[in-house]
Amino acid sequence: MSITYQQFVEYATDLKNHSDSIDDGWNICQYQCPMNGSFVNYLVKKEIQKRNNSSLKSDDSNSPNIPIVCEYHILYNLSYSCPDVFFNMWYTDGKLLSLEHVWSLVHSFLKQNVINDKWNAITQEMHPFFSTPFFRLHPCKNTHVLEMLGFSSKNNYEFNPLLSWLSTISPLIGLEIDLSYGNKDSTKFS
Amino acid sequence: MASSPEIASTTINNECSKTSVKDETLLRFEPLSSCLDPNFWFKVCQLKLEVDKLDEVHRPIIGYYTSNNNPYMSFDCSSFNQEIIDETSFKYVARGYCLNKNTIDSFKICDKNELLREFGERLLDDFRSGKAIEDPSIIPAFDVLMYTDLKRYIFYYWFAFPSFSGPKYCLNDVPTLLENTLSSPQFDLLVFGFKNLKIDQRGFFGVISTKEGNLKVMTLKEYINIFKNNTESDSVGYLVFADPSDLLNNPGWPLRNLLYLILLHCPSIRTSVLKVIALRGSPSTKFSASMLFNIKVSSGNIFKQDAIKFVGWEKNAKGVFCPKYVDLSKTMDSTKQAKESVDLNLKLMKWRVAPDLNLDIVAKSKCLIIGAGTLGCCVARNLMAWGVRNITFIDNGKVSYSNPVRQSLYRHSHCINSNTYKATAAADVLREIHPEINSTGVVMSIPMPGHTANIDDHKNVDLLSKLIEDHDIIFLLTDSRESRWLPTMLSTLHNKLAITAALGFESYLIIRHGVKVPDVSTGEQKLGCYFCNDVTAPGNSLVDKTLDQQCTVTRPGVSNIAGALAVELFVSYIQLKYNVLANAKCCLGIVPHSIRGFLSDFQQIIPFTSSFFQCIACSTIVIDDFLNKKEEFLNNVFTNPNYLEDLTGLTSLKNEFENIEIFEMNDSDVEDSGTYSERV
Questions:
Q1: Catalytic site includes residue B322
Q2: Rounded distance between C-alpha atoms, residue B612 and residue B653, angstroms
Q3: How would you label B335-369 residue by residue, b for 16+ Cβ within 10 Å and e otherwise?
Q4: What is the DSSP annotation of B366-383?
Q5: Dihedral sign from CA coordinates of B326, B330, B332, B337
Q6: What is the DSSP letter of B679?
Q7: Chain segment A3-54, per-residue pLDDT in tens
């Protein structure tokens, strides 16, 4: 299922509102396009993952408890008509994690799939707004994921598709989604 | 908010082992750690290289922290701005200083205790003067000592969050959740008041309860004033600070400095109990995780102001008081790193030797190299070393077996099957040497006067004209005199700087052609071009010549000297914006008009000449004739060897000469003859 930019903003706002109520740290930022001066909204979350108890934890428990700063951007991708996630991870001394390291951090239950098909899953590329290197989960499967989750353009649905998608892909990118997102009072989306 | 007590209770279980509340008396503060964004280092490099250079200044910077369970102070590239851009986000501001040392030795050797005392004394001065009360963002002070290895992208740094080692504080009772003390409407008033504070006042402020039971938020300054006038032994209201701590029963580091500031300014409460609210969470959740601490100065620890000691160096990842080290070279793209490193070497010139050197204008210049032979290769390499990004070659030859040893851009592989054009090979090799170069090779022959084969070559004339128009500087490096004529004329037409380098067996000439004098009334004269000193038009010099007369037979070093001098002349020239007189002064020294050197006695002179009004390449007559009747003019030039001499009046001049009696001249006459030459 593809979504429009207006729908994306609506879902993002819903996500942000719940985030505010539990201090989850999601914010909506605006980027002004230098070509035509128009504004584009996107979701941002930046957090310091202090302990190795998140979904980032991989099989090796020997790795020391070094805090990692994670920054997530969820943009709207016009070409694929779907959400598009960019993320970056670095140590507190400012050193970025390498792509190989990010691959190794994928949750163990998805790890094998990612290793088999690395370049179609997570790659490092330029952030479209800031022209700095970010990691990106390739968006080509996102509309497919949404369909598999039962969303289609025809139906009305009770859940925020953005949230369902994000919680599906979150183990790939070391993002933790609080369970309360699942049982919050849902708004009807159309 | 049904979920928050749960969160709190689980946190208690988790944190029990870590907190030190079990000895019931002493209050310990959770230290802050530094958290750097990758772009922080980028900015550090830029500032050191381009602004600070050799200065070791205490540069003010801004750190940010939150009250969301994060005992970190964050820094990014915006930390070096002095205005706070992001007013809307709920981050708290801390102001401190960054000291970037020049050498790794001075970083290592400097006395860290002394340095910390220096940091602390400055903080104490701000506390005593009341500056910290006006601007509470200097209370959570920090300093960072660093050394940046700009060549290898290695950084050594050590953060300090200076604080006072005494007095000691203890808890009056077990800290409680603020929810147990304040009602929900009171929380609302707290959040409301908080949001109305300016961003740099939000880290530390005060709250008093009014008679109606309402809460009133006020700035730290207002609160301290109330405190000072208060004669009762108990404290009024609450002192509030944004708490970055992630330990339930331990407040974060900023409180330590705040308590000291309060005790310093309000001596009356040194014996009473202070009620302190540690703001935790964010305004959107109404700071529901906030804690209430009742704190007093530990007995036996009287507040002393003499012999103050300071603490606060950050521990490294292993928990040792030691500088941190980060190597960013591996995270960088190799082509970008090459570009940065090339620029680094150039920018370092500005540190001491030539502070006024304008590197941007050099880098931006578009250079056209006509002739990709020995001189062309040498010029291109030197331009690249100066950071020039745009280089175009013009040449019609192919790389031959004799070339690679003298022509530094070619390899043996280019010669095999005699298939590779010099212009394209040179452009490719430049990109191989430095991927950030924008280089192009144009395979074309330069139309030459007296070469009748050029008669239909007007297309190449137009192409050359276009290329010259599109570039800023033209290097004329071909090996025959006649091939320099058309580019010289076209450079004059488009008013572009042209530099000629020409070689003899053991001599060389580098000359920058004169450009238009913008203001004739100053009496300045246009400088001459390569042809101005000659009274014969170029003809076909390859007719009836033996092989050793056709090829440039030179001592191999001559071309390297001449090529390098041509580039240095260009760099010096371009430092000056306007019409550059002969031997004008720039930040690198003088800018000569021409350089002649002789390897037989290793001498070099820098003569200058004005332009010649009858010059066959740069005079107005020639340019006008080209503009007015281009086709006819070109046909005449290419077919009739005497056309240019007739046009400029040189023929009649020569005829006059023959009618003049020849006098012998002695040496003193030569010096007066208009050409001034200087021995270097």
A1: no
A2: 13
A3: eeeebbebeeeebeebeeeeeebbbeebeebbbbb
A4: EEEEE--SHHHHHHHHHH
A5: positive
A6: B
A7: 899 999 999 999 999 998 888 989 999 999 888 889 999 999 999 887 544 4
Q: What is the pLDDT of residues B189-217, one digit of tens each?
A: 999 999 999 888 999 999 988 777 788 89
> Do B34 and A92 make contact, defined as CB atoms within 8 angstroms?
yes
Over the stretch B328-346, which tens digit does the pLDDT of each residue have?
888 777 777 778 888 888 8
Whole-angstrom CA distances from B180 to B184, B187, B237, B277, B341 are 10, 11, 16, 12, 60
The CA R_g of chain B, rounded to the nearest whole Å, is 38
HSE-CB at B536 with a 13 A cutoff on CA atoms is 8
Q: Quick one: which H or E segment has residue B675?
A: none
Which residues, in sequence order, are CB contacts of A79 under 8 Å at separation 6+? Answer: none
* Contact between chains at A94 and B41 (C-beta distance less than 8 A): yes
CA dist., res. B240 & res. A63, Å (int): 38
Inform me whether the C-beta atom of residue A132 falls under 8 Å from chain B C-beta atoms: yes
Buried b (16+ CB within 10 A) or exposed e, B292-321: bbbbbbbeeeeeeeeeeebebbbeeeeeee
Neighbouring-strand partners of residue B676:
B608
> How many pairs of residues across A and B have Cβ atoms under 8 Å apart?
58
Q: Token pair for residue A111?
A: 């790890």
SS3 B141: coil
Contact B292, B248 (CB under 8 A): no
Examine the pLDDT at B127 and tell me if it is beyond 80. Answer: yes
Token couple for B406: 């003298």
Q: Distance (Å, rounded) from C-alpha B614 to C-alpha B537?
A: 11
Cα separation of B364 and B378, whole Å?
20
Residues of B in contact with A27 (CB under 8 A): 89
- The 3-state DSSP class for residue B107 equals helix
Helices (DSSP H) in B434-555: which residue ranges? Answer: 458-470, 485-493, 547-550
CA nearest A71 in B: which residue?
Answer: B37
Q: What CA–CA distances, in Å, run from A110 to A83, A118, B220, B630?
A: 21, 12, 52, 73
| Residue for token pair 């969303």 | A151
Map residue B396 onto helix, strand or coil.
Answer: coil
CA distance B132 to B96: 12
Copy the structure tokens of residue B48. Answer: 């050191």
Cα–Cα distances in Å, from A57 out to A31, A51, A115, A136, A178?
33, 9, 16, 20, 17
Q: What is the DSSP string of A122-151?
A: EEEEE-TTT-SEEEEE-GGGHHHHHHHTT-
pTM exceeds 0.80, yes or no: no
- Cβ distance A48 to B70 less than 8 Å, yes or no, reads yes
A98 contact residues in B (CB cutoff 8 A):
330-331
The tokens describing B596, both together, are 């002649």
- Beta-carbon contacts of A167 under 8 Å, excluding residues fewer than 6 positions away, are A177, A181, A182
Residue of B475, B481, B484, B504 lying closest to B597 (CA atoms): B504
- Checking B420-424 for CB contacts under 8 A at 24+ apart, the result is B421/B395, B421/B396, B421/B397, B422/B372, B422/B373, B422/B376, B422/B393, B422/B395, B422/B397, B422/B398, B423/B372, B423/B393, B423/B394, B423/B395, B423/B396
* Helix then strand then coil, % of chain B, to nearest 5: 40, 20, 40
Token pair belonging to B69: 């369970």
Q: Which residue has the tokens 């006695």?
A: B601
Joined together, the tokens standing for residue A35 give: 């070509």
Query: What is the Cα B393 distance to its own chain's centre?
Result: 29
Closest chain A residue to B157, measured at CA: A93
CA dihedral defined by B534, B536, B540, B542, rounded to 10 degrees? -60
